[in-house]
Design a protein that fits this description.
It contains 11 helices and 10 strands. It is α+β, with helices and mostly antiparallel strands. A 6-stranded antiparallel sheet has the order 1-2-3-4-6-5, with helices on one face. Strands 7-10 form a two-stranded antiparallel ribbon. The chain has a two-stranded antiparallel sheet with strand order 8-9.
Length: about 375
């Protein structure tokens, strides 16, 4: 999982800083770089006692967005959550001095567990497959039950108006990313299909879900979780870069996207589609090969039970369509970072190409949301 360092850092300067400020981590160090992480380079740090840690840093160079790559926010939220029942790695130090290794960075505990890329959990028993999904859902609901002010995060984000702020932010971000020019070809990344239609639909407040304000992760999904080595439970949530106070449906729709993407039209199959999540009535479905895999409806119900509030289907459809729109812009951001050669992930070009298909899927869901709203209005 961790291998060759693709983006070198000044190891001598890092060791000097740690000797002076973080006595727990004992140089000399061995450094490896993880393959995951789309935007913030992530390293495995092994000290002289063979204790492992994780270092996350901002990428080098001129950044496209001032709101992205906020490793300081990552550190702040995991440090605050250490006092709750939400599983997070222990935060060890935050360095805001960019002169040390060129950008801000923080160090956290290395969680020795399982990271699962495929949300169908192909290598576990039916019982564990059910329970691992159930605990992932429960973990999300536990996060949403935390009151930000109880753990010193009352200034972490605004308690109302999340989706309106998201629309404004992603509108600006998408236009900025569209202007990124490929370093070699000069080709612009460009705007997403149906972009103006998306913004107009989502901006109509009467159609938005009931406003709520909870602590949200921002990219809650199976491969951002660490599971216990042998037990079907979550031991840590990773990648808190875009966490804030916001609407819980933003996280829930992200978690259930294996079902959304796998059954989406018209652009199927996508890079993240999985036949295990296809409706069993579909002849292409491989759902029967993964006993214990819950349905989308079961996952949503588990969330309802732990979180303690209802989720109308009309609100969920709206939020799912917004999640696809949001993801298309995230993929556009990967394409933009690749264009200027700032992307740290080895598959950045492939992921960046997903922006247009995701926009098409999102627009299809917008049309479904409109039908539901029209039907509701006639009642």
């Amino acid at each position: 999982m961790a291998g060759e360092v693709r983006q070198p850092i000044d190891q001598v300067a890092l060791e000097r800083y740690l000797e002076k400020n973080v006595p727990e981590v004992k140089p000399p160090l061995q450094l490896k770089q993880f393959g995951f992480g789309q935007s913030n380079p992530t390293y495995q740090v092994t000290d002289s006692t063979n204790q492992r840690y994780v270092l996350r840093k901002k990428p080098p160079g001129q950044l496209l967005s001032k709101t992205a790559h906020r490793v300081d926010r990552e550190y702040r939220v995991i440090h605050a959550l250490e006092q709750t029942d939400v599983p997070v790695p222990r935060a060890i130090c935050m360095c805001e001095d960019e002169s040390i290794i060129g950008t801000q960075f923080y160090i956290m505990e290395f969680l020795d567990g399982r990271m699962v890329v495929n949300p169908s959990f192909p290598d576990v028993s039916a019982e564990h497959r059910t329970e691992m999904w159930k605990d992932a859902v429960r973990t999300l609901a536990k996060l949403h039950r935390v009151r930000p002010k109880d753990i010193g995060l009352e200034t972490f984000g605004k308690p109302t108006g999340f989706y309106n702020r998201q629309i404004k932010t992603f509108d600006s971000l998408a236009k900025s990313q569209a202007a990124a020019e490929d370093k070699e070809t000069g080709e612009l990344v460009g705007l997403l299909p149906h972009f103006d239609d998306f913004v107009q639909f989502f901006s109509e407040g009467k159609n938005q879900p009931k406003d709520r304000g909870v602590l949200v992760h921002g990219d809650f999904k199976i491969d951002n979780l660490v599971f216990h080595k042998t037990e079907p439970r979550v031991i840590g949530i990773l990648d808190w870069e875009i966490s804030t106070v916001g609407h819980p449906l933003a996280d829930l729709t992200n978690l259930i996207q294996p079902w959304t993407i796998s059954n989406a039209t018209p652009s199927w199959p996508r890079i993240h589609a999985d036949r295990a999540f296809l409706d069993p009535r579909n002849p292409e479905s491989k759902n029967s090969e993964f006993p214990g895999l819950p349905t989308r409806e079961e996952a949503v119900q588990w969330y309802r039970e732990t979180a303690g509030f209802d989720i109308p289907e009309k609100e969920l459809t709206w939020a799912v369509s917004f999640a696809l729109f949001r993801d298309s812009i995230i993929f556009q951001g990967i394409a933009a970072r690749y264009a200027v050669r700032q992307a740290s992930n080895e598959k950045a070009k492939q992921y960046g190409a997903e922006r247009k298909p995701f926009a098409e899927m999102g627009f299809k869901m917008v049309q479904e949301a409109k039908k539901q709203q029209e039907s509701q209005a006639k009642l």
